[in-house]
């Protein structure tokens, strides 16, 4: 073997060693995370319009590699990488949380374009304002404001706070237990629609902190994850569907109390299908105008599988023979919003789906988004 060949082999071995060390170092910087919602989409980019490359299950573990605004770059068990909305994955180690929350501790605190006291001021924040910390430079934090505007603020004016995900209690008298087990000591009980902070997830149980400060475990059957900024709308099939659903529910609720009038489609009055078509159109979705035609739009879903944003259809005639005569928008928790023609209402109201008048008049449901 010639001298030149030996030198080449040595050089290659050195390069491989350096490369291996870089891989190990990079792996050490990743953070283990646990998926805390069902059917979470992994996307090719940090955007809800990016293509879906995989779907994660509740309780699945991933490696968090990086973060960008509201997204985590993760590595899957097969080695592939993709992006997930960061409210759907919880880092397992607090000291490696890649996206922290901060509370402003002074009034009139300047947010600047650059981490420099002489940089232009782009906004002023008052005490108690909540911001997301997305970067750090010496004595400055880079923050995200209103999910759009980025800027820099002196670290002296920020108190770090845990960036816990919000969960909503979906049952009555739900127990918070000391340990993640059905025989665990009961520390407290919560009613329907109480909100908790989710710290982590383990083997079917959420580790939560109640608003009272009580920390413990609630079984997954009694918690729905709520996306930040979604006005209480729960996680449904994916992070793609959730923003659209949230928008539909928010728009619909804006018209509570608006009068019912047959043949009208808003915004000063509605009939039932005029209301649903107007709400979906306002949210950017085109659907049919009549309730019978809407009952053929989208895909059919069972009553047991209803999600917020689904259309629900009823037979409100005296015979109750399955004809479609009324439609509303399901908003979760067994309730739907609709333009009611009933004598006691005649306006946009929220009604119970499984109780009272509408319980036995339900015919079908459709999912449009």
Keywords:
369 residues; mainly beta; SH3 type barrels; 4 domains; six-stranded antiparallel beta sheet; five-stranded antiparallel beta sheet; 27 strands; protease; NLP_P60_dom; hydrolase; cysteine-type peptidase activity
For the record, the CATH class of the largest domain is Alpha Beta
Oligomer: single chain
Rg for CA atoms:
26 Å
Give a quick account of the main beta sheet: strands, pairing sense, barrel closure. Answer: 6 strands, antiparallel
Number of strands: 27
GO molecular function: cysteine-type peptidase activity
Family: Belongs to the peptidase C40 family.
Protein name: Cell wall-associated NlpC family hydrolase
Keywords: Hydrolase, Protease, Signal, Thiol protease
Describe the structure.
With 369 residues, this protein is mainly β. The chain folds into 4 domains: 3-96, SH3 type barrels, CATH 2.30.30; 100-161, SH3 Domains (SH3 type barrels, Roll); 165-226, SH3 type barrels (Roll); 241-367, endopeptidase fold (from Nostoc punctiforme). It is built from 4 helices and 27 strands. It has a 6-stranded antiparallel sheet. Strands 6-5-4-1-7 form a 5-stranded antiparallel sheet, with helices on one face. The chain has a 5-stranded antiparallel sheet with strand order 13-12-11-8-14, with no helix packed on it. The longest helix is centred in the first third of the chain and has 27 residues, at 3-29. The radius of gyration is 26 Å and the shape is globular. The N and C termini lie far apart (68 Å). Residues 16-28, 94-98 and 229-241 have low confidence and may be disordered.
